[in-house]
Design goal:
Strand content: 35-45%
Distance between the termini: 106 Å
Helix content: 25-40%
Structural class: alpha+beta
Order of helices and strands: HEEEEEHHEEEEEEEEEEEEEEEE
Largest sheet: 6 strands, antiparallel, barrel
Number of strands: 21
Radius of gyration: 47 Å
Strand order of the largest sheet: 2-9-12-11-10-13
Low-confidence stretches: 376-385
CATH topology of the largest domain: conserved putative lor/sdh protein from methanococcus maripaludis s2 fold
């Protein structure tokens, strides 16, 4: 066997030494980095640190339950003005939407030349029949006078009387035809049926209309009816004469009123009660067919505790709140009385002045310590009215 050269053996040992030194250097660097990281790491558990939270103070308030229903404002009376007996072309339309009209004012006219001619013909025919009837009646009277002297037979006298009565019946029929034709002629001039305003103009001159067609629509807004429907369980709440508050969305105003009428039965499909509230509007400021809201008290004021709505988790009639006691929080349950806007009203088992957590609730557990932030404020306590 031939021995390896001494230079080759020395070179291999040098390479191994370099590799070993690099490994030791890397291991030492890693150890130093681990020690440095551990030195910066907190040894205390996070659960022992106070959790940041924004809290608010509960306030005493008086809460009064109420009901709110959406409805529609309808005019006291509304009429679509158009022909009732004839079909014709529109000749003139004298008003446009927004026009104020008085009862009897002319709103539109129709082209009724044909109806006028027919009325004149019917009138002439009626006069002719009246003349013939008078002649036959006079002759019948003469024949009756001659019957006493036996100058004519009873049969001839009876026939003459019958002819007179037939002419009289024909005259009555022609007079009825004349009256009907006169109605058609009167239908050519369309007048306002009551004092009001024009809300819609459906036809212009030249349009063809038939009986029942509405050319213009007139509404009376001096009194409006807010019509609404409520659940059948609120039947007793909606007694006629009960005071209500009406919110007009179109004009952003609130007016007072009372329940004017209430249906004696429910709708079999929706199980709701129909009711109406009359709203006086002498200045005619509220538009018709717009929406509004009716609010009605449904109980007496009761003591309550008010908290911000977003501080609670509400399920049905129960609310869960994180209550700060000392520097710890506890999850408590309370009975919900109602809510108004951004406020929640619960029973007074939650004392006024108690602090409740607004923000940071998701990270809390029972008994956690908290570092309370700036307290948020709720509206000043007063007598509130709200919907359940």
């Amino acid at each position: 066997m031939t021995a390896a050269p001494a230079s080759t053996t020395a070179s291999g040992r040098w390479v191994q030494g370099v590799i070993a030194g690099g490994v030791l250097l890397v291991v030492a660097s890693g150890g130093l980095m681990i020690r440095r990281a551990e030195a910066r790491m907190s040894k205390r558990a996070l659960s022992s640190e106070p959790q940041p939270a924004l809290v608010a103070e509960a306030k005493h308030a008086m809460y009064r339950a109420s009901r709110a229903y959406g409805g529609t404002f309808e005019s006291w009376v509304e009429a679509g003005v158009g022909p009732q007996f004839l079909s014709a072309y529109v000749d003139t339309v004298l008003v446009r939407p927004g026009a104020v009209v008085k009862q009897g004012d002319v709103l539109a006219t129709l082209d009724c030349r044909n109806a006028s001619a027919a009325t004149q013909a019917a009138g002439m025919e009626a006069r002719a029949i009246a003349a013939r009837q008078k002649a036959v009646a006079d002759e019948a009277a003469r024949v009756q006078s001659m019957l006493k002297g036996a100058f004519v037979s009873p049969d001839e006298a009876e026939q003459q009387v019958a002819r007179s009565k037939a002419q009289e019946a024909e005259l009555a029929a022609q007079q009825a035809t004349l009256a009907r034709s006169t109605l058609s002629v009167n239908d050519c001039i369309l007048r306002a049926p009551f004092d009001g305003e024009v809300s819609r103009r459906a036809y212009d001159p030249g349009g063809f209309v038939r009986p029942g067609t509405s050319i213009v629509t007139v509404v009376d807004r001096s009194t409006l009816r807010l019509v609404a429907d409520a659940p059948e369980t609120d039947f007793d709440v909606l007694r006629p004469g009960t005071p209500v508050r009406v919110r007009v969305y179109a004009t952003d105003q609130e007016v007072g009123g009372t329940v004017s009428r209430r249906s004696p039965s429910t709708d079999p499909e929706t199980r709701t009660i129909h009711f109406e509230v009359d709203v006086r509007d002498p200045k005619r400021e509220i538009p018709t067919n717009t929406t509004g809201e009716v609010q009605i008290d449904a109980g007496e004021p009761v003591p309550a505790t008010e908290v911000p709505l977003y501080a609670a988790s509400v399920r049905g009639e129960d609310a869960s709140l994180w209550v700060v006691e000392g520097d710890q929080v506890h999850l408590r349950g309370f009975h919900v009385l109602g809510e108004i806007g951004g406020s929640l009203f619960v029973d007074t088992s939650l004392a006024a002045g108690a602090r409740v957590v607004l923000e940071g609730r998701e990270l809390l557990e029972e008994g956690d310590r908290v570092a309370a932030g700036a307290a948020a404020t709720t509206p000043e306590p007063n007598e509130r009215e709200g919907a359940r």
